[in-house]
Amino acid sequence: MSASLSRPRVGVWLIGARGSVATTVVTGCAAVTAGLHPPTGMVTETPAFTDSGLPALSDLVFGGHDTLDCPLPKRAETLTAGGVLPPGTATAVAAELAAADREIRPGGPIAGDTRSETELITAFADDIRDFVHRHALERAVVVNVASTEPASQGPGSPLPASTLYALAALRAGCPYVNFTPSEGMHHPVAARQAEQSALPYAGRDGKTGQTLLRAVLGPMFAQRALSVRAWSGTNLLGGGDGAALADPAAAAAKNAGKERVLADTLGTVPEGEVHIDDVPALGDWKTAWDHIAFDGFLGTRMILQTIWQGCDSALAAPLVLDLARLTARAHETGRSGPLDALGFYFKDPVGEGPSGLSEQYEELVRFGRSLGQADGEGRAARSVTGPGRTGEAL
Amino acid sequence: MSASLSRPRVGVWLIGARGSVATTVVTGCAAVTAGLHPPTGMVTETPAFTDSGLPALSDLVFGGHDTLDCPLPKRAETLTAGGVLPPGTATAVAAELAAADREIRPGGPIAGDTRSETELITAFADDIRDFVHRHALERAVVVNVASTEPASQGPGSPLPASTLYALAALRAGCPYVNFTPSEGMHHPVAARQAEQSALPYAGRDGKTGQTLLRAVLGPMFAQRALSVRAWSGTNLLGGGDGAALADPAAAAAKNAGKERVLADTLGTVPEGEVHIDDVPALGDWKTAWDHIAFDGFLGTRMILQTIWQGCDSALAAPLVLDLARLTARAHETGRSGPLDALGFYFKDPVGEGPSGLSEQYEELVRFGRSLGQADGEGRAARSVTGPGRTGEAL
Amino acid sequence: MSASLSRPRVGVWLIGARGSVATTVVTGCAAVTAGLHPPTGMVTETPAFTDSGLPALSDLVFGGHDTLDCPLPKRAETLTAGGVLPPGTATAVAAELAAADREIRPGGPIAGDTRSETELITAFADDIRDFVHRHALERAVVVNVASTEPASQGPGSPLPASTLYALAALRAGCPYVNFTPSEGMHHPVAARQAEQSALPYAGRDGKTGQTLLRAVLGPMFAQRALSVRAWSGTNLLGGGDGAALADPAAAAAKNAGKERVLADTLGTVPEGEVHIDDVPALGDWKTAWDHIAFDGFLGTRMILQTIWQGCDSALAAPLVLDLARLTARAHETGRSGPLDALGFYFKDPVGEGPSGLSEQYEELVRFGRSLGQADGEGRAARSVTGPGRTGEAL
Amino acid sequence: MSASLSRPRVGVWLIGARGSVATTVVTGCAAVTAGLHPPTGMVTETPAFTDSGLPALSDLVFGGHDTLDCPLPKRAETLTAGGVLPPGTATAVAAELAAADREIRPGGPIAGDTRSETELITAFADDIRDFVHRHALERAVVVNVASTEPASQGPGSPLPASTLYALAALRAGCPYVNFTPSEGMHHPVAARQAEQSALPYAGRDGKTGQTLLRAVLGPMFAQRALSVRAWSGTNLLGGGDGAALADPAAAAAKNAGKERVLADTLGTVPEGEVHIDDVPALGDWKTAWDHIAFDGFLGTRMILQTIWQGCDSALAAPLVLDLARLTARAHETGRSGPLDALGFYFKDPVGEGPSGLSEQYEELVRFGRSLGQADGEGRAARSVTGPGRTGEAL
């Protein structure tokens, strides 16, 4: 992952930097860079994005916040035992894991934390700026891959941690991506500040499995004028995510995104519920069963069922790398505000955009093309490593 | 289904007119016209096609060829008992079923038929022209919804029945739609004549269930850069179709279309086979199981399975009505040759066109729009009821 | 269903007599008696029970309680439209449906009911006794097939309706079967009285679908020494039952039974939850998905999934007829107390008995045999139509 | 795996000794003996068999024949990469793998083999006897775990390899177990000799996945008097087994066993086919989908589907260990001829016995008990290590 002196490097600052997704991101980026694995699952490595001016995988530098303290190499070992990472890979990139591990700073608030919200934001922003300066990065993108928080309690309650991090990103002058259903930049306080900043942001809630399927099956029913009566789903998952989502409040946040995909693609909300069960025995593996009852011609009742068995971290990691690269390049070329061309990646996308996956893909490809054309003007203008820029955006 | 004197009426001539699909087409058209059921499954009844100048459902007149002699009302009764048609519907449209039944002529060749191929083509074309003239139809579309034939034996062997009918359509000056995997207009003899005619045609093999799914799931894997390793499928179906496809030669024709969808959308042919089993106990209902093994990031193995339980006749019938209307209108507006904008409907579409369902839908909508804009010029120019036109195309 | 004068007839008094299950019971009993359908699903019609001395289907007379007032023939019409009853059957047995309809008495307590619990019990018992006397029945069995009640609130709260009916059965001197998870005879008040009575009773919660499967799959894993880690399930159902079980309290009662089967057959309670979703679009049809994660040799993770698509009323009805016949005969031959040989039929069986389906079946067959051997002695001794017997048991 | 001098040791001679199943057997026996893993999947390690007098796992000594020459430790490495063996296990038992590897002799006939059938049998028998003598084993059991052979071509054709090995077992005086669908001892030539020998034998075709399920679901439908209309199945598997069974002749042998289970438990052969597809991408993992269409009360159509995802080697290995121990003990206690009490383990069991899994389990437990009671008499009488015994049985 060494870069020549002249090649600008880009930071990827992960909130939840010791989690399964983050560990897979760091391991995978190094493994693909080293040629150990093909870049399966990375859309930005397909020919359509060759000329988009994206930062190279070898130019990404990782750091982040986490409240846990399990070292990344150890975490990678656990993921290898669980079948998430292939045998031998974590060992092969041990140096890169150790390097990223050194760049992880304590997150918050932790139990008994006496710091005010402002102090926390300042501390987090300082961590990010320090990371950027020490590594002489051109810019850094903040990506939230932490466990899902419970839905917010409403006005007057403390800011959720995800929003503190989002505000820290703004303050450090960094683009922001929310890969989780947590509130982050959607909180009114953060949304106001985001609007006033000149920073691009994207989110929320990565579309990795059941919702990915729904984003192609919903349009299929709509395009064929078939009438969906009920769409029911059950998700079984272990790992930390299963436990976090066993909290009904956290699950509610997640399910809202899933429902939105159906409502947007079908034009109506069918009957049916979505369950998320914590099944520790499944480890990092997830099974999602969907049962769709629909009416055909003359009201004939038909049924489609889908069973998706995947590993969430392995599904999320390449998308996180895609998003970091696309958002970094968007920043470089002067984009600001919600990046609605990234709806392809999210359950509940910011901004306006189509809801079917195919249209979202077309929009993404168009966006990639426009990022390439924008080259030249943007880079100079918005480099955060230029004097007097980084950390003074707000 | 009465039409005012001034409203031009359009014939729908069904090859396999006493089969499940044809019976459902006739019953359903009448039931929707009468307001007994919403037009679920008919894409041409959605707002996108309001201004396409399509013939009204109430202006369609049905007839066709079949080698069987079970009366349509009786067949509709059987389909009602089997759950394909809702209780009461066939009875409510008994008059329309009887009317269509009167317009069904004996097909062929039958066992021991001594007529030459030319005589058969002539007889079939005469039947169609007679139908058009007696009903003073503006034009008629020939649609093949007969059982799948075995794949052709190659040069020198007799023309398959489906090709005889296709040639009869050409001779009668009628547009042609092949909803089955049979050879029809694809036979070199017919293909040559079709080229020389000024008639539009479409096909082949309606995309109703498993392949419909594949046409949205294939692009999903491709767009997400996920690597499909194996795609296996089993279809269980009863009814006449199950028995016909239990013949390996007939199944081969069908499976070629299914494979084409994967090859075109994935850009590669994955491992895996497709089975079609005749299971008489299932009647007109079909279960299709697909098992897709794919690699995610760093080669992690994941699996998607789909189970589709549908009624083929109920899935096919609205598409047949769509195709009849679109093809009739294409003829009216002067289109000729392969209608590649109709790839949305077929496993193995004629002409050039995208292979993902979403792009096919967009193309269909564009086509519908263009059909509306073409109005005026086409209708007068190509009416087959005008003097000296019908039946003299070849 | 006419019986000769000399043949003793047996009453089947259904709690929830206007529901789907009860309607299917009455329709089916008449249809099988008339030879319109084979007795599929009725274990008591298999050769193993030929000599058990069970009352003939043609000797069963139906009545019952319900708080609804939809006439049985109308209910049967709805079930026919929903595909639960085959077309034509309800019409063919219209007379029997009307006869049963005339024997249904208002249930309770209804909203605003001012009657005391004692008054209700007395009224219910009077209804049953009146039914027995008017038809000169040898005996009557009370069977609860009403919607599931919420789990009881504990000591001091009013007796649940199901328990009022159970007490009425005791007072009327009738054997009692609880086909639902409601409390019924399990309430301490009723349990005490049942013990003092000389009446047989059975229950609870019919094992019709998902739990039936669990009762054979659980033993399979245990016998093969495979280690089940997690057993998760989701049930989708419409009809009244779906709505009733959408109430978490009612679902809790049901799920306890499902869990018991796993605990008893596996010898341990695996991870995993069970969901019951109300999906009105499914009508009387139910889909149950089970996902079982188990360890094989050396800890290899494996998965079994089952999808059960059935119609609960059609699954329950033949079991209800079985139970009515077996319990009537048990009463006739002098059995009293919990009939633990009937565990084959229940999720949460009374008394002691094996939990695997196969052992339960063997026990049932043994019981059937013993019922046959007991003939002669029992009938005279326990006939409830003899002078001074009926209704004076308590 | 050290055994005290006085403890008699038992040989397990594996035909196909370098295959996945054999490698898993050797690895697993050592790992369980060393306490690295619990004996999941081994029925003989459950309390019911404590007093059966079975040889201890630590007293088993492995050897065998194979035509391949991949060393066992290397094969174990491949299985570890494929997820069949847990990480670290093969390394931990490297010594035991190497020891077994040294005891593997070249199988046959190989391509261009000029030896006659008699010469091959003699050579194989000599290998086995040599193994027994060198290790001073009390006895050895021959177990066929090689790839499935094509079904035999009938009278006059050469003896299949599996039968040559079976005859060698007889000649060496060893009990024989056929875990595959190959002909082995079922060939008339071998069957005749087996009858005349005093040796016990068992088989054939291990019941590990789809058929295991069928052996509990078939009885369920029968016991509930539900009428199975069609039972269809598809198996997807990679590994060597997938390739071997892609040969229709080999698949035919396998499917006959699967069908027998249905015919025996249902009392009728339902509609439906079974497919076995070679899907190399699945490696040693297998997916089996079953679709069962059945009629309930009044002919209502219902469906059960099962999806079994397992690792065949991990399912087979503990059963092979069970069978080796049970058969060795049966030999020790003087049993001869077909061991019909072992039907629990086989698709197509030798001898007479029940076909439902539960009854088979009960019979197995009874057999285990009788093996314990037989102790004393048998051991002395039948030890093959006694002077003049081994290899002279025929």
From TrEMBL, chains A, B, C, D:
UniProt cross-references to PANTHER family, sorted A to Z: MYO-INOSITOL-1 PHOSPHATE SYNTHASE (PTHR11510)
Similarity comment: family membership: Belongs to the myo-inositol 1-phosphate synthase family.
Species this protein is from: Streptomyces variegatus
Molecular function terms from GO: inositol-3-phosphate synthase activity
InterPro entries: Myo-inos-1-P_Synthase, Myo-inos-1-P_Synthase_GAPDH, NAD(P)-bd_dom_sf
GO-annotated biological processes: inositol biosynthetic process; phospholipid biosynthetic process
Ranges where the Myo-inositol-1-phosphate synthase GAPDH-like domain occurs: 209-313
Protein name: Myo-inositol-1-phosphate synthase
Lineage, opening ranks: Bacteria, Bacillati, Actinomycetota, Actinomycetes, Kitasatosporales
Superkingdom of origin organism: Bacteria
